């Protein structure tokens, strides 16, 4: 399994940086985003280090969407975004592949 000692998400997987863990399997880790765009904003990452989607072997990708789906369902949100950025021009900041799961609040909530 490839890892990068300088990668912030590899450090999270290794427990060297704390995170709010949601899912932990031999190939996949999911945790809450430190700067959430909405309540419950989560990140789903392969344990295999790679900057972009094409850097990750297929075997290490298979669980990512099923785990993202599970987190989206568990959030209780009817609407949500699943996003995955590759490269600076595409707004990627952390160079370890990650899927964002962003629940969207129900707009009718609180309006009686
Ligand atoms: P990107 O723009 O690369 O797709 O998104 C990177 C995401 O990682 C951002 O939403 C940011 O808030 C999140 N992030 C960056 N550093 C940390 C960290 O140390 N812990 C957690 N939980 N999330 C982080
Ligand atoms: Zn990494």
Automatic annotation (TrEMBL):
GO BP annotation list: nucleotide metabolic process
This protein's record includes keyword Transferase: no
MF-aspect GO terms: hydrolase activity; nucleotide binding
Reaction(s) catalysed by this chain's protein: adenosine 5'-phosphoramidate + H2O = NH4(+) + AMP
List of catalytic residues: 98 (tele-amp-histidine intermediate)
Family affiliation: Belongs to the HINT family.
Motif (Histidine triad motif): 96-100
UniProt entry tagged with the keyword Nucleotide-binding: yes
Record key words, sorted: Hydrolase, Magnesium, Nucleotide-binding
Cofactor needs: Mg(2+)
Domain HIT intervals: 8-111
Protein name: Adenosine 5'-monophosphoramidase HNT1
């Amino acid at each position: 399994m490839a890892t990068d000692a300088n990668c912030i998400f590899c450090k999270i997987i290794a427990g060297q940086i704390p995170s709010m863990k949601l899912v932990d399997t031999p190939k996949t880790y999911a945790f809450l985003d430190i700067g959430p765009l909405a309540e419950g904003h989560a990140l789903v990452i392969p344990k295999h280090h790679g900057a972009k989607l094409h850097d990750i072997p297929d075997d290490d990708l298979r669980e990512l969407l099923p785990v993202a789906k599970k987190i989206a369902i568990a959030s209780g949100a009817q609407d949500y975004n699943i996003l995955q950025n590759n490269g600076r021009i595409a707004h990627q900041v952390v160079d370890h592949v990650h899927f964002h799961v962003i629940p969207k609040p129900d707009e009718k909530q609180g309006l009686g």
